[in-house]
Amino acid sequence: MKIFKNKWGDILLIIFILALIIPQTRKPIQIFVNKVISFAPSVNDEDEWEKIADYNWILQDINGRRVEFSDFKDEVVIVNFWATWCPPCLAEMPDFQKLYEDYGGKAKFFFVTNEQHETVLTFLRKKRYTLPTYKMLTKAPGPMDGRTLPTTYVLDKKGNIVVDKVGAANWNSDSFRKTLDKLLGQ
């Protein structure tokens, strides 16, 4: 066949396309690509900060306990909307785990999903993650919106949305850690 004669690039491209078509190989490739292209999230300009409408949000933790978001008013809060089937979400989970290990006692973390608790628990155990995950019992306060996955919001102690990031990011970067330290110090 003349089409493939001395055209190793074409062969590699076809193999890559086939790998993207096959579900067992597509997901790891997507996670890898998202991880490679993820950068530290940027902080919104202070004059663009939006305040959450209220803290009236009820969640359920992985153990089935009811959690009132209002209990975390006046604290630095990180809310991440995610799913176990979402490659960009999975790409940023290792960074979130490292961040949670270092800041879990200082800031409040909420990893919110609509998936069944058993599915999430199986995923967390398999990956050895200790991230606090929740299911929404009521709608999230505006303007927080988790319709696009992943979406992450970082709230300061006054309820201002300092960071609102749609898509994967490097949450364990030095620049984000400095932002978090600054927010915790206020």
From TrEMBL:
Supply one GO molecular-function term.
Answer: oxidoreductase activity
* The protein's name: Thiol-disulfide oxidoreductase
A Pfam family name for this chain? AhpC-TSA
The yes or no answer to whether the keyword Protein transport is present is no
UniProt domain Thioredoxin: residue ranges: 46-185
Q: Which organism is it from?
A: Christiangramia fulva
Q: Which UniProt keywords apply?
A: Redox-active center
Q: Which InterPro entries match?
A: AhpC/TSA, Thioredoxin-like_sf, Thioredoxin_CS, Thioredoxin_domain, Thioredoxin_ResA/DsbE_sf
Signal peptide range equals none
